[in-house]
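Example 3.2
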Amino acid sequence: MLKLFVPAKVNLFLRVVRRRDDGYHELESVMQSISLVDELTFAPAPQLQLTCNWPELPLGPENLAWRAAEVLRRRAKLPGDCGAAIHLHKRIPAGAGLGGGSADAAAALVGCARLWEVDLPVHELAALAAELGSDVPFFLTGGAAVARGRGEQLEPLRHAPEMWLVLVKPPFGVSTPWAYQAWRPESGGGASLADFLSAMRSGSAAAIGGALRNDLEAGVIAAHPAIGALRERLLELGALGARMTGSGSAVFGIAAGEPAARGIADALGEGWGQVFVVRTLANGAPSIE
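Structure, written as tokens:
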């Protein structure tokens, strides 16, 4: 049996450049791995099987991890009786903008490649990941990276500082396609990517907190004001900066350190949803146990 851990991400910076002719959106984003992880186990089986600790999760071809295993099996031209029993232990909330489904897909590619002894070059594995979804290639390496295009064009950031975050998932999720449809060009604004990267290089959590940006936030808050209220509450409690991550619904606040993060989480109180205290990770690739 093979066991992998794969971390979630937050978008520290997300600028929507434009809506493309192919229906996707051109992005500039900075994605950062965090210490909230899903756990996947892999064992040989005569067919593909997926189980999960969340009974509401689809377990067939509509599941991104299942599709990742199938895509790899076809690419490697493995026989039909070469399968895998995959168990997914979810901790990353769904519908949160934390990339849980994409993370699980990346872990399924890595885990099944190891289980089936499929040795693909890194660029071919990344190409398969991009077929599955725009965020999936990021989760093969994780850490911190600038993402451009649909999100699949990655530039690693080697010296991102460690930070402590308070992460809150409200009691509702947000559909990613809906969030992008709700985006309007006039609703964006904030620091430029160059300014944000300058803040990252400074190593100052306060500077990074002041340069956070998410162009999807305004459209989502218009329909879900609780997200805006949560962001303001984190700032009131001492967060150095706070934003919705990705397409939502989760919101994170940057704290001055671990004690400050735990203090904010304790002071937040009940009723906001699931609360996590997490740190950023320099290495966010799926780790094999």
